[in-house]
Structure formats: C-alpha cells, structure tokens
Amino acid sequence: MWFTENPWPPIIISALIALVFLIMWNSNRRGIHLVIALAFIGICFLLYPLERFIVTEGERVQLRVEQLCYDFRDKKDILGYVSDTREDLKRLFEEAGHLITIQSDLRLSDFNTRIMNEGQRATVHFRANATVNVRDAGDVGYQPARLILTLEREKGEWKIIEVERLNPINGKRMGTLEQSPG
C-alpha cells in the first residue's frame, strides 16, 4: 500500500531536505552534501510519476463513484453499481434516473474516501453540482448536492449499499430525492 494519495507532501519534504543539504554544501563545500542534495532533487522528479503509477484502493473507489455519476448523467445503466442485496436502492436509482436529467456541466469535488473493515467496506463523501431538469418541473437550475456513499466489496467489485444525502449548506441529512436548498 502506498503511503499517500497525493504526491505533493513527499515532493515538498524531499525538496526541503535537498535545500538543507545545498545550504550545508554552500557553507562547507563538502562533496557528500552536494551528492545528497542532488539525490533528493532527483527523488522530487521521480515521486510524481511514481505516484501516478500507483493506484490505491481509495483511488479505485473514488474512480468507481465518479464513473457512476457520469453514467447517471449520460443515462447509462447504473444498477450494476448497486449491491444485489439492496433492491430498494436499485429501485431508488431507477426512479431517480427517470425523474432527473443532469446536464453536461456536472462537477464533482471534495472527495473524502475511507477504507474500512480490512478493505471490505468504504465510504465516499463528496459534492456534486450540476444544472438539473426534473420531470414535470422542468429546469430547476444549478443544484448543489452533498452525498455519502457506503460501498462494500462484492465478488471483487465495489457495490453501493447505502446512500446518504446531506444538505450542502449545513450538512444535515435530507431526503435522497429532495430538492436542494437555495
């Protein structure tokens, strides 16, 4: 397992270490300090591609949730994202698909993914904003949404077992298909 999902903290730490050794080299001109500084500068350049190459389980879950959102927007079949044990959620997703149309300006942000139960369960807290059309109501404008999805690994694939919708302003729980405030 990789120790970070963001390359910038280790890059900044490596750059600071390189800077310290460059300062030390500048004051006493010892070759070892220059070699160590150059090594850490090299590490800085290697960390970014290395981090892009390594995909953590949290990143896999986040990508799965992002794909769900884009498939929902594009009116593709999304029932495969939901656990077979949750027929009620499958009906909810199906109803939402018939009721709501998401425009192309969908924006996903503020992802916070937690892996639990020895890699068998995950929660993904995120925001989704888009222009929304509701059947029988028409264009309801640009709507914010804040969601927490709970996923469980089933047959090697992450499946949704719970959906919690939060008020985007105050964070209180609200109805899944309820209109956002504002």
How would you describe the overall organization of this protein?
- With 182 residues, the protein is an alpha+beta fold.
- It is 41% helix and 31% strand.
- It has 4 helices and 6 strands, in the order ααααββββββ.
- Strands 1, 2, 3, 4, 5 and 6 form a 6-stranded antiparallel sheet that branches.
- The chain is elongated and about 75 Å long.
- The two termini are 42 Å apart.
- The mean pLDDT is 91.
N-to-C terminal Cα separation, in Å?
42 Å
Total DSSP helices = 4
Helix and strand content put the structural class at alpha+beta
What does the largest sheet look like? Answer: 6 strands, antiparallel
Strand-residue proportion? 25-35%
Shape: elongated
Helix content: 40-55%
Order of helices and strands: HHHHEEEEEE
Low-confidence stretches: none
Oligomer: single chain
Total strand segments: 6
Whole-angstrom Rg: 23 Å
Q: Look at the structure and give the mean pLDDT.
A: 91
Give a short overview:
By secondary structure, the chain is an alpha+beta fold.
What are the main properties of this structure?
182 residues, alpha+beta, six-stranded antiparallel beta sheet, 41% helix
What's the layout of helices and strands?
Layout: H1 8-28, H2 31-53, H3 57-73, H4 87-99, E1 100-102, E2 107-116, E3 121-134, E4 138-154, E5 157-166, E6 173-174
Antiparallel strand pairs: 1-3, 2-3, 3-4, 4-5, 5-6
Helix pairs in contact: 1-2
